[in-house]
Structure formats: C-alpha cells, structure tokens
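Quick illustration, no need to memorize.
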Amino acid sequence: MATVLRSILWPIAIMAVIHRSYVLATNGYITDDFAPVYRAVINLKKGLNIYDENFDFVDPHYLYPPGGTLIMAPFGYLPVDASRYWFIFFNTVAMVLAAYFLLRLFNFTLTSVAAPALLLAMFCTESVTNTLVFGNINGCILLLEVLFFRWLLDGNRNHEWWAGVAIGLTLVVKPLLAPLLLLPLLNRQWRPLVTAFVVPVVFNVFAIVSPIDRLRVRDPENFFTRTLPYIMSTRDYFNSSIVGNGIYYGLPMWLITLLRIVFVVLAVVSLWLLYRYYRTRDQLFWMTTSSGVLLITSWLVLSLGQGYYSMMLFPFLMTVVLPNSVLRNWPAWLGIYGFMTMDRWLLGHWPTTGRALEYLKITYGWSLVVIVVFSVLLFRYLDAKAENRLDEGIDPPWMKDVAKQPAPAQPAPRLLMRPRRASSCDGIAFLVVARANSRPGMLFR
C-alpha cells in the first residue's frame, strides 16, 4: 500500500512544485513584493537613498532594515527579470529543503509516504503559492525556522549557536520569528539567544558603516525616522490582524482592545500548560506546539498579520503526526483551512457577504486554532486534575496505553492466484513484504 501511495503522490507533488514555481511565480501578479526589493538593491549599488518611499500609497513598500538590504545586495547585479527568477528559484529550493528537514525532525524519511504528502500539502497552500507569486522571501525564512528547531532539539550544545544564527538571519530581514526567542529562553538555552542578537547587529552595523561604497546604505537614519514608524503603525489593508480588520470594518476601539486581550490570555494559559506539563516530557511537541501559539497570537494581536505568514506554522501543523497532538480534531482543521486555503470566497450576487468571508477567513482561522489549542489543553488539565494524575502529565491515559501496546502480529501473506514458476523478482517481493510486516508504522515511516 505504501508503494502505491508513493507512486501516486510523488508525481503530483513534483508537478505542484513545478507549477507554482515555474508557471504561477514567473507569470507574477499585480502584487509584486520583489519590485521594491530590486529598487532598493539597485539604489544601494548606485549610492542613492533607499528609505524615501511615499507610504500614502498601498503598493508594496520596502521595509527591510539596512542589514536586510545588505543580504539582498547580490540581486542588484543582475537584470530585473533574471534577478526575480533566481529569487524565486532560491525560495523554492529553500521550501523543499525545509520540507526535508521537517520530515527528519519528526523522524520520517524520503522513502515514506509522508514525504510526497507533505510536499504536496505545502505547495497547495495559499501561503506558499503567494510567497512565490508575489516574490517574497518567506521561503528562506521557513527554512531557517526549521533549522532553528532542528539545532535546538538535537541535543548538541554546539548546534545551539547555529540555531541562534539561523533565527538571527531571519531577524536581519524581518522580525517575523522574533516571538520564537521565548522558547530557548524558557528552555534555559542561552547560546541561541547570544547569536540571535549578535547576527542582526553585525549585519546592520556593517551596512551603515561599511568602507565599501556599494555595500553602504546612504540614508540609514530614514529607516529609523520614516520606515520604522510605518512598520509600527496599523494599516487597514492587506492586514489580517484583529486591529487591522477592526479598523477596516469600523469596530469600536474598546472592542478591538478587548479581543486582543482575550487572545493574549488564551495564549498565555496555553503556553503555561505546555511549559508546565510537556517541556521536560516531550520537547518536540512542546517546542513546535508552543511556536504555533506564539506566532499566531503575535499576528492576531500586533499591528500586522498577513496571510502568507501562515507558512511559518508548518512545524506546528506537523505535530498532527504525534499521538498527543492538539490538532487531531475537526475544529482545528476548519481553522487551518481558513488560513491555508487558496479558495476565494468573493460572491458576485452578495458582495458584502463575500468580502467579509474573503477578508476575514484568515483571521477567523487563526483565532479558531488558538481557541482549539487552549480548549484541548485546558480539558486535558481538568481531567488529569480530577483523576489526581497531574504528576504524570496531562495526556489522557489511553495515549500512554497506546504507546506501550505492542503492535499486532501481521498474518503471513496468502497466495490469491494459482502458483506459478518462481523467479528472482519473487524473492525480492517476498523480502519487501516481510520487511514491511516486521516494522509497525512502515506505511508512514
């Protein structure tokens, strides 16, 4: 069965990757995140001002700090089309590598059904597709996020420095993953915190004081006086945060503030339960689930949350393969549908309803997942407390029983056809069947 599934899923997954990266991405869209990046690196090369945009327009703006401009500088030495195509290529490769390292993080291999299933699922989402079509750097950010988890969790102290380098490189470009620094702090891992701080400082300082003219930003003060205030402000377009949608729909500020407080409280309680009952018992589950809570809450309650940020939740979504996952229920996947789907909900006959469904589906999805995580953990805690087993953790007893239960014996394969003359292929087939039957979970691992 595993062989059949792999033979079905691999060609579909590969074609999905090619279609998104080669067809959709190169065709482009009216939204072009790469255009302001290319303009910035061209100005860097020519020694012109970079942070002089007019923020009164709703076109994509250049928001990377000086260090991010320095990282992107090589793309300024290519023609615009070639530069964009190479940028798409690197992001595609980064996302494929992220899928591979994510599989290894959860102990799957490339020979498992999970490999093509994960790749296909990733490249069918709105977040991955729009990242490539818009020409955004989020693919590289995802790879660095997965490496951050990989090096934090492999038990090698020296790799913790590299975990900080990985997330530090993301902070050079954008502070999207900054909330994840709480995880090594809570886990008493100080090494990644050091390098996560040093890397952005080094890149930004070098971009400001570089002795090489073509690598020195001419107007760094404008980033702090013009661009940074814009980043900290709230815009009412292309913004799925609570405050962004609240302002767009004219909600009173007291209601917006109340909703933000409610979701912060839900997140804090969830993070406390995860820390208290899973940090030492199951670090992979604790860290990846906590990352989902931290990221979603930050997008909901801070000034800006965009739909394609959701691709940073792939490590969290992969916890569904764990027996104690909080995502093994239909409300969770209803929420995931909201922020991952490529379906458009605009209605020609009922435009007001259609716009509400289309513009709010990401916000609703994020909100529902936070509520689901909180509810699952809270009821696990209440059940464990009522049964006086908090010292053993809050996982239901049946989860532990399933983990301890030996796999059922597999019956020997029976011949369903008339025996025929044996060949060398028969011996190979028998070994494959015997190997699969001797290993529980071979279908997915």
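The two ends are 13 Å apart (CA to CA).
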